[in-house]
Specification:
mainly alpha; 2 domains; elongated
Length: 292
Amino acid sequence: MPGSLAWAIERFLASPLYNERAEPTRRNYRRVLDQLRQRWGAGLLRDLQPHHVRKIRNEIAATSTTAADIAMGLISALWEFATEQLGLEKLGADPTHGVKRVHKVAREHEPWPPELIERFLARPSLRWAVKLALYTGQRRSDLVKMKWSQFDGEYIEVRQQKTGELLSIPCHRALRAELDSMPRVADTILVGERGASLTGSSLSVMVRKQLREMGVDGYAIHGLRKNAAVALADAGCETMEIAAITGHRTLGMVAHYAKRRDQRRHARSAMDKWEQSGKPENTSGKFAKIRN
């Protein structure tokens, strides 16, 4: 029935919001969406209230707490999708607002203070990893997958593991100088002490270990992703430009398509502004709520 949860799910499954996700994400979403459609699909979206969402959450959590939290996120996404794309403007407030997730939200990664970056870069070990993270704004899983063959001297191409997004990231002049001085001992840019490729987890462990040797706790390699976003924001970059570097998917559908079409241009503009700002490691606190 038009306006029902199943009706919205079927259209969501046919949309780029679903189909342009990475395959593992689509698989996890599909399991939960099928469960929502089969169990509650006949209900009308306009009738969905927070107490219904709590009931759905609790029933799914009886078999999988992770699926319960995914269901909460998907209901919220379906609500926005139905409002913005399916023309159901009178749905009202998102019924998931105020309904707690089953799992507690993990502690947010903090951006590194400038003095900590300077101290870390003064040590030869792992300075390349920190520079790569700081000047590309990518997740650890993408940093360790970057290959020399993806760097043409001006851009680094990245296929984000989490989202499947293909980005062409202009190389900041500070990073370009660093890459020019690095030995190319393997296919990947980052390698371990014995020249072998790293995993995202092993990179995190190595960075955390060195921080502890410096007497510092509470920071991780992922925090540098936020440093990049903060520096871009302080350089005067627009949200679209920042997303073109970091690959965040927090824009509406129209902006999403514009990002795919103009990503390289926006990324070039963003990097130019960053280089001209003279503030590559600004941590003033803007973008403190950027999602991982």
